[in-house]
Structures are given as C-alpha cells and as structure tokens.
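quick one, 267 residues, struct below
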Amino acid sequence: MIRFLIPGGVLILWAALALFAPLAPLAPNKVDLLNILSFPGAEGWFGFDALGRSVGDRLAAGARTSFLVAFGVVSVSMVVGVSIGTMAAWVGGAFDHTVVRIIDVFLAFPGILLAIALAGILGPGIDNVIIALATVGWVGFARLSRAQVMTIRQREHVQAARALGSHLWVIVRRHLLPLTWAPIIVEATFAVAGVVIAEAGLSFLGLGVQPPVPSWGSMIRDGTRYMLVAPHLVIVPGTAILMVVLAVNLVGDSLRDRMDIRLRGVD
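---
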C-alpha cells in the first residue's frame, strides 16, 4: 500500500500544481535584481535564478507545462493508437499488414529523434510539442492493442456477437475494449513518464515552450550556465523531473501487479 500511496501523493501534488498554479499568487516572471542567483533561504525556498526570478514559482508554473503536454500527448496517442491497432487486428488482411509495416518503420528510429525532427519542422510551442510527441507515441498503443485484440477476437462471446449481427462499434465497446483496457492503462502510465522526459528534453534544446513561459527543461538549460555558482538552478528542476518520473513508474508497476491475474494467487 505504501508503495502505491507515496508515488500517488507525488502525482497528486504534480496535478494540483498544474491545475491550481494559475489561481495561486505566483510571480514566475517577476524580476528581483537584489536576489540574482540567491541560494534557497527564507525569501525563497528554492532560490532565485539569474534574473532574480523565484525558482519555486517557476517550478510550480513549469509543472503545468509538463502536465499539459503529458496529458495531451498520452490522450491523443492512446485514442489514435488503440483505434488503429484495434481496427488492424479486427480487419486483418492488407490493412493489418500495412499498419504493421508502418509501426515497424516508426520503431526503426529512436522516438526522441523523430520528435526532435518534427518539432524542428513545426517550430517551437506547446501545441507543436504535443503534435510531435503524439505522432511518435501512438505506435506503442497501436502495437499493444493489436496484440490484445488478436488474442481475443476468436473467443466465443466475440463470435456470438458477430453471429447475432452486432455492429462493429458494439463489439468493440462491449467485448474487446473491456478485455484490453487494463494493459492499455498500464502502458499509458509508463508513457506519461516518457513524455515528461521528452518534453523536458525538447525544451532543453529550445524546441519546446518558449520564454517567458516556464518549463522544467528550459530551467535546467538556463541553469547549466551557472552550475558552479548556483547549482540549485539545475538541482531543483532536475529533482522535480526525477520525482515525477519515478512516481509514475512506481504507480505503473503497482497497477501492473494489481491487474495481472497471474499474480493474484501469489498475493
């Protein structure tokens, strides 16, 4: 239980910062020349950056950026990937063969490199980051959903629904998705961790959100110039990324263990 509650609490805090940061009295872009490169202290728990801006306020505002990108990319990738994978497994034939070849092409290249190329073509901005990462992220969901549907499409209840003349959407909604939903949810949790790292990487390279909008990746990029005199500029956002990614992975592991029927008898 503790293994699930602690990382769950971290994710709840991350979501709360993302949802309620605009309502909080934060000033992520307020310049204070008297606190340039100041270390964490009473005036600022996480210190101040090279322009005298509060690192804590920018960290909270950056949580909103990473959350929006993660939620948007995973949502779009899951809908597109599950739809394509389910249809490919159900229809079969040339359509399934074409989808498999497209998936193989995407898997032949590192996903982050394709995302960087797409982000470079589309230009910087949070919308383009979501498009670039979703263009790469749907492949995992399509591959997983296709494999799941391939194993259950010949079951008796599915064949009975087809024999009774049920509509394809009814079969998918009532007979296919309920049996494939558990592994898809687990896949989505791990995808969130990957998107958080990818968004930070794109922002670090200058291909993500642009100043003055805060982002954990851009905060690390700006902080690398002052590593020797103000290491907190890198440590604070880096620790935030570490905690969120670790929490997401731990929650994903817990969900996988809870949803795996083979492990229920062991517990």
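Residues 2-261 form a domain with the MetI-like fold fold (CATH 1.10.3720.10).
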